[in-house]
Automatic annotation (TrEMBL):
One of its GO terms (molecular function) is alpha-1,2-mannosyltransferase activity. One of its GO terms (biological process) is mannan biosynthetic process. Its main location: Golgi. This is Alpha-1,2-mannosyltransferase. One of its GO terms (cellular component) is Golgi membrane. Pfam families: Mannosyl_trans3. Pathway: Protein modification; protein glycosylation. It is a single-pass type II membrane protein. Keywords: Golgi apparatus, Membrane, Signal-anchor, Transferase, Transmembrane, Transmembrane helix. It is found in: Golgi apparatus membrane.
Amino acid sequence: MLFPARRKAVWPLVIVPIVLFLYLRGTFSSTNSYMTEAPPASEIGQVPIPARPDRSVAVQFLSGQKMKNLWKELHSALTHGDIGVKKIELVEGDGGPSGEYLDPNSDYPGERERENHLAMTTAQIQSMRTHFTTYKGKISKLASITPYWKGTRGIVMGAGGKYTHIALTSLLLLRRTGTKLPVQVFIDTHDEYDAELCEVTFARLNAECLVMEDLIGKGTVSQYQYKILSILFSPFQHVLFLDADAWPIYDPAFVFEEEPYKSTGMITWPDFWVSTVSWLFFDITGTKNGPVMERRSSESGILMFNKEMHTETLLLAAYYNWYGPDLYYKLLTQGAHGEGDKETFLHAALALEKPFYNVRQSNGIVGRWINDTLHTAAMVQHDPVDDLKTEKYTEQHAGVPKKDKDDKVIPPRPLFIHHNLWKMDFFDLGDDISPIHMRDKDGKLTRTWGDQKDLFKRAGFDIEEMMFKTLINAKCRVVNPPPECPGLRNYYDTVFHSGSR
Ligand SMILES: *[C@@H]1O[C@H](CO)[C@@H](O)[C@H](O)[C@H]1NC(C)=O
């Protein structure tokens, strides 16, 4: 027995995958190799199977007149006037900010100075300020014409290309929690649209694909810029945004109903590093410049928004992202870790003085040591409701916890796994090149997350085992399993059931 918590969790680990398998039984039925026998009637209905969405409704919403009108007005506001700067560069010879890693288990490292490493002339600053002010002046009118379905809640995911396969892994694990939240998967372009996955497999998982190209055309935006538009254009009023590689450990729907979401309508999660936002950003946007160590840099793989309170925030974030790659991503990160859309959401709320809750508990990281090298796998992101209740944090300490009287940090409950450090492509899982087949110096297979007794105790069950079990059941319990299944099963049996770690 690895630890006591596993015992308790045995039955859901057995029942859920079986039922999930039954639930998915038809998922692959249009492909011969995935054909399976019918489940006994007695086993049907043990997990809540969400109603199939009416596919045409959201598609109609996205291609409807109100949305077309919003995009026309938004596009016109975004592109109005010359922002006056082509690209912001670092000061010549300056390596940029160090982007210091803030160890979640260390004591508060002390205050930091707000730094600037960017070369900008006074005229450029003035020009960006004017452009920003003009756009900001249009936000409330744009917000008034932004359509959404009042009272609805749902999950929005970004995918496309190989990310659609990663999203399938996440959807399977999401549905394992029993959540009834509907999912909309935004695909960038029709070239990346996989009809079989979207219309058969995802549909059975109550997930619907929406193609951004239908609304905004092709080549209008790239990469990170799609995220803000998918949140803004999704019809849900209350949105939980998940990167394609992120999934919840429990049904996350309760977060919509409790503090801090209820009063703030916006939740963000922290990243590992110190904030590297340039003070020029505050200068240009007139945002109040608080202490650097007020919060860490932001991680935007998981976000929550209530449009009734935050449509304006989303519209300003759209502006930061529209001018992101050459301008605002530079101002907000200055070339440090993970430069991209990460800071644009939180800083839009700050600029508009809107309330939001930034989870204080820093993300956990799981991974294993093999031959003296750390192979990381995933991040653990925490429950905001529990985070708020955890009184042992101070407001100003960038998520570095005060310890309790026994000098022990008890983090809030884990809620999400963000498997971004190696990507779990459902169709490659178990392939020869997969990280699961790495062996240690004794030639043994090991858990990809390393030793996570504390995490699993906190979660109440062995999340890594559940993850592999769920995926094996969906992938391999079929009449003609794909060729990587024996290797995958061998990995699972060896690592999780022979006592080896
Ligand atoms: C670790 O070392 C062992 C023994 O030298 C070797 O067989 C194994 O492939 C190595 N693993 C990795 C991931 O490098």
